[in-house]
Amino acid sequence: MERIKIMITEDQDLIRTSLQIVLNIEPDMEVVSVAENGERAFNLCDDEIPDIILMDINMPVMNGIEATKRIKEKFPQIKIIILTTFQEMEYVIDALQAGAEGYLLKAIDTKDLTAGIRVVANGGTLITKDVAKVLFAEHIQKEEYGKHDENKINLSKRELQVLKCIANGLTNQQISDKLYLSIGTIKNYVSNLYIKLDVSNRNEAIRKIQQDKLL
C-alpha cells in the first residue's frame, strides 16, 4: 500500500507531536516531516515533497497563508489543508485564495481528520457550503470592481479597519487594543494586507494607500 506522505506545519510542539502520533497509526499515512513555521515548511519541501501539508495559520516567521501561497507557486502538486482554531471566515477565504484545498479545525475528531486527508489526497476539497458562498460572492464582487476600477483591491470589512489603523500610524499593539483582537490576529491581518497590496513593510503600505487612494 502506498502511503500518503504528510508534513505537519504547526508552531505548538504538543499539537505537532499529537498529530504525528495519530497520523502515523494510520496504515495508509506517514508523517515525513514537521515544521514550526511557514518558512521552515517551504524549505523542507526541497528535501522531500509531501503529498499533503497540514498548515497552521498563526505562526511566527511566516504565517500559513503566505507559506501556502509560496509553496503552491513552487510546488503546485502539493495539496494543503489549513488546520486552525480560527473560525473567522476571512482567514479561511484568504487561505483558499492562496491555493489551499480546504480547511479543518484543530478540534476535529481524529476519524474526521484522517477522512478529510484521504479526500484531499484523492483530489477532493474540504470546503463547507457557507465558505463556498462567500468565495462565490467575493468572486462576483471582484469582477464588479474590475469593471469599475482596476486599481481597487478587494478587502474585507476587518481588513479595511486594520488598513485605516496602519494609515493612521498605529502599531500592531495599538491596533490590537483598538479593535479588541489579539496581537497574533492583528499580525496575520497585517501580513495578509501586505500580500494584497504587494508591499513588504508599513511605509510601503502607507504610500500605496495614499497613491491609490484606497481609503
Automatic annotation (TrEMBL):
The keyword Oxidoreductase does not apply. Keywords: DNA-binding, Phosphoprotein, Transcription, Transcription regulation. It is found in: Cytoplasm. Its main location: cytoplasm. InterPro entries: CheY-like_superfamily, NreC/VraR/RcsB-like_REC, Sig_transdc_resp-reg_C-effctor, Sig_transdc_resp-reg_receiver, Tscrpt_reg_LuxR_C, WalR-like. It comes from the Bacteria. SMART domains: HTH_LUXR, REC. CDD domains: LuxR_C_like, REC_NarL-like. The modification 4-aspartylphosphate is found at D56. It holds the Pfam family Response_reg. Residues 5-121 form the Response regulatory domain. Residues 148-213 form the HTH luxR-type domain. This is Response regulator transcription factor. It comes from Robertmurraya mangrovi.
